[in-house]
Amino acid sequence: MALMIRCLLTGLPCGKPITIQDKTFFLAEPEEPQKDRERRAKAINEAIGKKFKIRSALKEKQPIAFNCKICAMIQCCAYGMADITGQNPNVILELGMMFAIGKPVIILCKRGQEKRLKLPSDLNAIEMILFEDYIDIIGDLRDITASLPPPIQPPRPVEETEQMLREVNPRLAEEIKKTLDDHRRELAAEFEEVIKAARLETIIPQVEKVEISAELEQRLDKLEESLMGLGKLGFTTDAKTAFYRGNFYHERQQYEEALEQYDLCLTLEHDFPEALYNRGTTYSKMERYEEALADYNQALKIKPDYHEALNNRGTTYDEMERYEEALADYNQALKIKPDYHEALYNRGNTYTKMERYEEALADHNQALKIKPDFPEALYNRGTTYSKMERYEEALADYNQALKIKPDFPEAVYNKACLFSLMHKPKDAIALLEKAIGLDEKHRQMATTDSDFDNIRDDPRFKKLIERD
Hints:
By secondary structure, this protein is an alpha/beta fold. Helices cover 61% and strands 6% of the residues. The protein has a five-stranded parallel sheet with strand order 2-1-3-4-5.
């Protein structure tokens, strides 16, 4: 059963069912100066990094202000830690939130500054570590975390109501509990059925976005609303349903909500490699690469032949420009599944970045032999041809990719780049305008892309990239 959290502003149930994550600290920390952040992180990691997970609004790219996601993050963590050095207002706010919830909190403060902040007297029992430099906190922090009290658990409204009913009418309490349990199971079963019909039972790499009918979308919305309603009562579904709900949110690019569900799933069932994989994929989408790697590593520890996890760990290494490690993962994935066209495609991309163009072409050719209608492989083979200045072959691949997938923003943009390189300014500008219409990011990309140097002084190009 999930725990219900209450809004710290209104005191009312907020409808976000959570599970307290053991061995987890929420760290309230100032963003600046950067050198202090680095020293603090190094000291905390040395003291407790292997035993505890540290979550921070800064680390997880949250806005540095009070909002629901930061509140939920704090309420999910078993413990709190706050560095009040400098009396940063956001840190003080987050400390107050942790105190209001009743979290066991460790306060860090540079020696001498503790007297400047008048903390409520009830905070005197909270551990405070004073230091001259962050390296000084290591010993005390290690000792304190070795004997932390159990996490404070939020109220369980359904259990409390059931207990009160049992004292008054045990039979009625049992009937209500059975009715709610039956409803929860039926709802979970229907949600699983619709998720599978929508092909969202997994988010194992699908370059193409899954097309879901309007009818299935409406059913999913209604079912998710019902599941959220049960959450407001304090109920949660089983690990598998939390996993599917994570997939539901991931498909909608609601990555924070997806993470909440994968966290819940993995709290209920620790050794769930697919949930670790999906959470890793979500972290990767959010550019939180170290956390993605940790999840892929754990998934592969449980399931060593998990070729999809090897492939996605490879793409994460690629994003981090750790190309040799990426190649090792693609090679291992292909050893397990030789016809794995996604791994061939990704290895080809990495070879291109490494300027190993012939090997890249070989991989893209093999991927297209396995899946001829693979527009992303055609697009990337075109990019490789372009790097090799084989422009006609590149153009043929971009055209074929766009024939399969007409509104393919990256292919349109790269075709514009190609026409610029081929000294066809009119075609280049027309396609760049189309690419910007499909995805505004291409306007900024074009301002620094050397492929457009041939037309950079063209008034039409200048007008296009400078448009408000």
